Amino acid sequence: MATRGLRSGLAGFAMVCVLTACSGGGPAAPGPVSHADVVGAPSATPPAPAILRPREARPERAGARELLLEVYFLRTVAGRQYLVPERHALPATKAVAAAALRELLSGRPLFPGSRPPFAAGTRLRGVRLDGGTATVDLSREVLRGPSGDRERYPLQALVHTVTQFRTVKRVVVAVEGRVSGAVAGRSLTEFWDVAPGEPLVRDRTIRLAPIALATPVPGSVVPGGRLVVKGEASVHEGNVSLRLRDAGGRVMAQGYTTAATGAPGRGPFSGALSFAAPDRPQRWTLEVFEVSAEDGRVVYRVHVPVHVGR
User: Which residue has the higher pLDDT, 212 or 16?
Assistant: First the structure.
């Protein structure tokens, strides 16, 4: 059963938080990336209701001691990469930028098929905001693995995670305090495929997952015989298909709901499936998917294990 969860709620956030990011648990980086304060300011316009829409998220208080922060992981489907936004419940803190980054680096994706963007062991050394530019300093472990990702999905996962805070407009990535040169024998410019110290912004050509769920999260306990499904989607005509299977793969309920906006737009959706609850607890699987308008095949699917039963 998941220890953290996404909280439902597709309405805009009314709370304004102080966003302070401080250095991580590793040794302090030299120069300007050793420590930072990120101070959030109220927006003149309230955020739109879609909780995962780029640039419009704010920290939401999940409870007296928790915040819900966005974290972007990677997923590959049929050879295509996607950024998958998830909302993670983290201990309440003023250092929300650092908390979101640490969750990106060491947290586990909630949904099956998603993966972290960087090598295991990568640590946050520090983050600093200066005039809307956040300099994020990572440990040398980030340079493990293949280089030359010209689509920049790992870097964009980091950029999307940091720029959820309205005071952050762009991101510079440093490794062991350096924004250029070489670390551990690897050229940062060649590894990242970016110019030295190049400020990065959200790349609008990067593919976000066509369906991003807010609830239920894997391992959720479903009371009674009704399962509510909420999230955000960018699918043909906004049609989001729902299906619930039992442990043997039999379809126990199916239906569909409609997102507020169809592709290429992105909008929130909410739907429900009704079913006959089994007499004893069982592990079933919810499928949330997009069907091709051309040939009826499933083009993108999310599987969510849930617990049902009286």
Answer: 212
